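Justification of resources, computational component.

The compute hours requested in this renewal are based largely on the per-chain cost of generating structure records like the one below. Each record pairs the submitted sequence with a full structure-token output. That output is archived, and it is also reused by downstream analysis tasks.
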Amino acid sequence: MRDFKGRHSRGEVILWAVRWYCRYGISYRDLETMLAERGVSVDHSTIYRWVQRYAPEMEKRLRWYWKRPGFSSSCRVDETYIKIKGKWAYLYRAVGKGGDTIDFFLSQTRNAKAAKRFLSKALNGLREWEKPETINTDKASTYGIAINELQKNGKLPDTVKHRQVKSLNNVIEADHGKLKQLIRPVRGFKSLKTAYATIKGFEVMRVLKKGQAELFQL
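The structure output for this chain reads:
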């Protein structure tokens, strides 16, 4: 990444800060202190702006290197709650049966339309051999509606099976928990836009930790 024109700090310092914040689940003020201990004087509000600017860019560039679970696998789809300005929003996520991240999508609503948007986004990001044979969800009717509509529109093969076995989603629920550990220090997001930008950074670091993008260089 080289897009640091107009910044008062060196690019490597900015990337350190963004990576540490998104990787370790710390507050902006704690990160300000950590950087000060290393001789870098920067205000926590500046670090926040760095995360908003560069976390989405990291996620965008990561997608060139992002390895998803291979064909003939099944994926687990579920949503978790994120509080934004005192109200709940919904983070849709999909992982492979081994826990590898497939995709994610933040929505203000939790309905069939949102589920369809997420599944469309996830499928568009997959190569043909990466698309699963089975999609496992909980008992929510919204997923069945979304999957049926995608199959009718030809965006999802008719051969893809929709399975509703809650216990098989334990792997994604556990992954939600690890992501929530990173989100917890935020203490509430101010808008959907800023929440999504920050979560993109968290998801990038989770993908890297899982070894899904070994060739990716920040």
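Residues 135 and 162 are 5 Å apart (CA to CA). Residues 11-64 form one domain.
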